[in-house]
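re: that chain from earlier
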Amino acid sequence: MADEALLRPIPVSSYVAVGLSILLMLFSWGLYTALVVFSTNVDDTPAPSLYAAGAFAHAGTVAAAAIARWDGKAWGALATGVIGTVNAVAAVGGKLYAGGTFDMADGTPANLAEWNGSAWAPVDVADVTTGPVYALASWGEALVVGGAFDDRLGTLYAGVWTPMANAPSESVHALLATDSLLYVGGAFAGPLAWNGSAWAPLGNGVDGTVLALAIHDDGALYAGGNVSAGVANPSRWTGSAWEPVGGSVDGVVRALASADGRLCVGGSFSNVAGVAARNVACWDGDAWAARGDGRDAAVRALLYFDKALVVGGDFAGGVAGVRQCGADPNTWLPYGDGPDGPVHALMSSSSSWA
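^ sequence. v structure.
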């Protein structure tokens, strides 16, 4: 009987259980050296890819001018890219847009470009060539564009550019779209809310330049930026007033993101609410906490992607992440060799543009 037991095939479920145990051990020992994203989901639909944009010439070993795609294993270029700096990216109606301060590969001034699946083309809007584009947002079927160009704010819908009525006279640095409202932040008394026909102030606004906006899991609007001394940074909008979020950073907030129940901030700072944190930290509703040693240079973009908090910025490698679920949230993991220059924007998408 003992010999027969030894000859019985071991159930597949046992192999699976052993495999999962080994994976959990590897995570706990910190033996993973890079964040990996599978190319397909369980249902065979394409898994989202990570897009990084900024001021770089290569991503990993690939020539990728200012924008690149991470497919879970390696970086890839989007044709020749653009010449200059990309500050923002957005997807609208199956199209990918990039905004910043750049020319096309042939030298044509642009600042706003569209990817058609095989090449970049300038968006034919003379206004945006008059100054930098700092922010993009998808609102319904329209692309909202903000920056320091003449009109400061406008929409692109069905190829038609429309300057936004009574837009702020100062530069726009942050955009956040919900189903019914568009929030706009920048170098003016704001943020402001646009409902499609009229502007509404949010209390007395945040005293300073708003560089980042986010909606957290609690449904509230959060804002951060380069604010005046004594102003909470970041701040939470209660519906009637702005309030502190457990304390403030001692510098500039450049990015906000809601990540696995935490509100995370990135920017240029050394502590938040008295907690040492180099350029990135997260609020769990009760207290602020650093993420490992943080980053040794400014963080300019945050994204919750594949159960990780991904950051982009001026540090070596340009992109890094920490697992927020099921693993050590203090161990930074690279995405390959990463871009060779600053990363200003991050985005995820399942569309196969690259």
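The chain has one domain: 2-349.
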